[in-house]
């Protein structure tokens, strides 16, 4: 079934947006000191890697990069049926007193970010935690707001917003499509 | 269709290769949790788990308890001595009484082969076999396989020889069934009095001499020689057992290649394994213990999801179910 889909960001706009997010992160932190960038599994990790490499290019600084898998912190584990696949969490540095920027692909209900904040707290007490997302699609169910946004769109609950990254999907970009109706 | 383990983990014999791989793959990310400053995730918050140990165990019980606590479950330990079991209560009555207190899972170690299955068929809680008689010890088999896979990168085609008292060993059976399903070659080596008759029918190669086993294998899984076997007449003496079947540095040095050394513990140093082998550079005995916690966390996590009725309820209330293997990016 070929679902109707439209492009939110093409490959060039995708690159441009991530570079701007990288700049805004450095601005928010007033430089790169104490900065740690943490991507949420899965596609947040690839976005975080691009942001880190942009920062290292422009600022000539190495920013530590981590990954969070929030599966074990989900609030719907009692009801989802078969266990979701658990990915790798890796926080390479002590985050106490540092500025942690969480990177995710799409901000929707805010439940993933809630879980990420809880998980991060088990690793230490950062001086500040900020949230950078490529797409904010609205529809929050929790009082959570991003600090840095690539693009804000308004999507219906019946639609899905997919971020594509070269490593996993063969190309970069963001598309919006109707959800496949489950039978 | 998403893969699941069903309600219980009773052994590795009933599992498919895919199910075993699911457990091993799930154990990978769980290793990291035990390295954190706060070694705890909220996944099984509110779940109550009873560790029902009718036989002595330190390593397995402690490992299960750590796994349960690191997943935030509430745990209760019941040992046979000092409980109503010693007053003559039957296994089912004990379990039903515990279940009446609203528990979610039972981890059971019992001296009778088949005890875990017997229980699983009679109670609603998830049952995990932590060793039943001489039948199976599935989580030990899984942690052995995880340790082997860590070192060799794969289980496909590797040669593992189990050395010692295969006859009385539930560890041996779980290893044989698990490793064979994952494509490994399995050998057994020991005195004929301690090998089951017709063991070849399980698809294993039998070695009568430990030197031949060492020459063949990539890894040795050395079983504990239970000392009471000597008085029962299975072997003439511990010294002779050590002389003929003991794994010593001299024997390993004569091998054409290096061998990985596993032992499920507790060890009898100087009987089935010499100290310089147990503490040597190719010993992964302590890695096995570390991996044991991760494997048990994975099993608890996977079994706790075997509640199709909850999934159905969630579906009818309109909540979206995630697609297999990947969190859709906007959920």
Write out key terms for the chains shown.
A: 183 residues; alpha/beta; Rossmann fold; five-stranded parallel β-sheet; three-stranded antiparallel β-sheet; 4 helices; B: 331 residues; four-stranded parallel β-sheet; 13 helices; 39% helix
Spatial extent as radius of gyration of chain B:
21 Å
Number of strands of chain A: 8
- Structural class computed from helices and strand pairing of chain A: alpha/beta
Strand order of the largest sheet of chain B: 7-6-5-8-9
- Largest binding interface between chains: A-B, 40 and 41 residues
Q: How many domain regions of chain A? A: 1
- Poorly predicted runs of chain B are 313-331
Query: How does CATH name the architecture of chain A?
Result: 3-Layer(aba) Sandwich
Radius of gyration of chain A: 16 Å
Strand content of chain A: 25-35%
> What is the helix content of chain B?
25-40%
Gross morphology of chain A is globular
Percent helix of chain A: 25-40%
**Order of SSEs of chain A:** EHEHEEHEEEHE
Strand content of chain B: 5-15%
| SSE run of chain B | HEHEHEHEHEHEEHEHHHEHHH
Low-confidence runs of chain A: none
Distance between the termini of chain A: 13 Å
Can you tell me about this structure?
- The complex is a heterodimer of chains A (183) and B (331).
- By secondary structure, chain A is of the alpha/beta class.
- Chain A has a single domain (5-178), classed as Rossmann fold.
- Helix content of chain A is 27%, strand content 27%.
- Chain A is built from 4 helices and 8 strands.
- In chain A, the strands form 2 sheets. Chain A has a 5-stranded parallel β-sheet. A 3-stranded antiparallel β-sheet of chain A has the order 1-8-7.
- In chain A, helix 3 (111-121) links the parallel strand 4 (99-107) and strand 5 (128-136).
- In chain A, helix 1 packs across helix 2.
- Chain A is globular, with a radius of gyration of 16 Å.
- Chain B is an alpha/beta fold and 331 residues long.
- Helix content of chain B is 39%, strand content 14%.
- Chain B is built from 13 helices and 9 strands.
- In chain B, helix 2 (59-70) links the parallel strand 1 (48-53) and strand 2 (74-79).
- The two termini of chain B are 20 Å apart.
- At the A-B interface, helix 3 and strand 7 of A face helix 1 and helix 13 of B.
């Amino acid at each position: 079934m070929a679902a109707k889909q439209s492009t939110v960001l093409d490959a060039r706009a995708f690159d441009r947006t991530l570079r701007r997010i990288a700049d805004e992160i450095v601005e928010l932190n007033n430089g790169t000191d104490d900065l740690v960038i943490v991507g949420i599994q899965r596609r947040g990790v690839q976005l975080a890697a691009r942001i880190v490499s942009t920062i290292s290019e422009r600022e000539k600084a190495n920013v530590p990069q981590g990954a969070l898998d929030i599966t074990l912190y989900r609030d719907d584990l009692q009801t989802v049926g078969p266990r979701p696949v658990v990915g790798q969490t890796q926080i390479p540095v002590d985050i106490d007193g540092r500025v942690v920027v969480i990177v995710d692909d799409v901000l929707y209900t805010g439940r993933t970010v809630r879980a990420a904040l809880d998980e991060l707290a088990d690793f230490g007490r950062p001086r500040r935690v900020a949230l950078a997302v490529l797409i904010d699609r609205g529809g929050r169910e929790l009082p959570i707001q991003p600090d840095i946004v690539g693009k804000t769109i308004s999507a219906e609950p019946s639609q899905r917003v997919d971020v594509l990254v070269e490593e996993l999907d063969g190309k970069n970009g963001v598309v919006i499509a109707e959800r496949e109706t489950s039978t | 269709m998403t893969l699941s383990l069903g309600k219980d983990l009773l052994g590795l014999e009933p599992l498919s290769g895919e199910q075993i791989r699911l457990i091993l793959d799930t154990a990978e990310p769980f290793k990291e949790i035990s390295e954190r400053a706060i070694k705890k995730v909220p996944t099984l918050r509110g779940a109550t788990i009873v560790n029902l140990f009718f036989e002595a165990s330190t390593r397995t019980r402690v490992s299960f308890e750590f796994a349960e606590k690191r997943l935030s479950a509430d745990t209760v330990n019941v040992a046979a001595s000092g409980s109503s079991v010693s007053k003559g209560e039957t296994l089912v009555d004990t379990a039903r009484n515990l279940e009446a207190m609203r528990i979610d899972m039972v981890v059971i170690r019992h001296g009778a082969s088949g005890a875990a299955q017997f229980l699983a068929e009679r109670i609603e809680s998830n049952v995990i076999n932590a060793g039943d008689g001489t039948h199976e010890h599935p989580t030990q088999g899984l942690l052995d396989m995880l340790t082997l896979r860590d070192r060799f990168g794969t289980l496909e085609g590797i040669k593992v020889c189990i050395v010692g008292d295969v006859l009385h060993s539930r560890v041996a059976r779980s290893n044989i069934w698990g490793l064979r399903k994952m494509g490994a070659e399995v050998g057994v080596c020991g005195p004929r009095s301690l090998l089951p008759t017709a063991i070849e029918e399980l698809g294993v190669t039998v070695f009568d001499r430990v030197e031949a086993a060492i020459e063949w294998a990539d890894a040795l899984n050395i079983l504990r020689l239970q000392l009471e076997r000597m008085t029962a007449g299975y072997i003439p003496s511990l010294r002779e057992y050590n002389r003929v079947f003991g794994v010593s540095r001299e024997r390993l040095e004569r091998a054409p290649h290096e061998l990985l050394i596993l032992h499920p513990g507790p060890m009898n140093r100087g009987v089935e394994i010499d100290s310089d082998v147990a503490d040597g550079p190719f010993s992964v005995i302590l890695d096995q213990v570390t991996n044991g916690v991760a494997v048990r966390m994975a099993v608890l996590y996977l079994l706790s999801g075997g509640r199709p009725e909850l999934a159905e309820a969630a579906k009818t209330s309109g909540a979206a179910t995630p697609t297999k293997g990947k969190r859709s990016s906007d959920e």
